[in-house]
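Please check this.
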Amino acid sequence: MKENSFTINKTARYYTIGDLKTAKNILIVLHGYGQLAYYFSKKFEFLSHKDYFIIAPEGTHRFYLEGTSGRVGASWMTKEARLLDINNNENYLEDLTTYFHTQNTSTQIHVLGFSQGAATATRWFEKSKLNIASLILWASVFPDDVSIKIQQHKNTNLIFVLGSKDPYFNEEMEHTCLNIYQSMNFEIIRFEGKHELNQHVLESIFT
C-alpha cells in the first residue's frame, strides 16, 4: 500500500477584534488543544482599544470533546499525517497574516501561542518570511523538531510564560523546559496558576 497526498482548496475559520485601519499592531493568537478560537479570542478583547487588531485563527481539526455530541473543540494537529498538518498550518498562518498586514503595512506583527498553539506558532515562526516583533509562547514545551536559531531573530522580543501549578509540567520537566527557553534568550514570566491564560500577565505584556 502506498500513501499519497493531494492538494485541495479548504476554507479555514478565524475571528478578528478591533479596527485594522487605525491599529498600530496586529496580534495573532493561537488557541490550545480542544479550544475554539471564538472563546479563546475573548481574553484579548481589552486590547482592541489599545491600537491592536487581533486575529484568532482556528485549527482546522474540529471534534466533539466527549463522545459524539455536545461541546466541540479544535486542534492544530495530531500524530496522524503530522507533517502534512504542520505544513498546512504554516501556509495558513503565513497567508492569513500577510493578507491583513498588506492592508496596513505600518503595523507591527505579534504572535501569541498557548499550549499546542505555542508549538504551532514556533514552527511557523521558524519558517515565516514576515517581520515578527514579538513571539509569546505560553505553557508549551519547545518543539524538538524545530532547529530555530534565535540569533537570526534579534529584533524579535521573545517571551515564555508558565503557571506555577501547571499540571502538564512536573518538576523535572519544568526545570528542563525553563533551561531551554533561557538558553535561547527568552524572557521568563511565571504566575500563580494552572494551564491557563492569566489576565494580569496578558495586561503586563501588552500594556
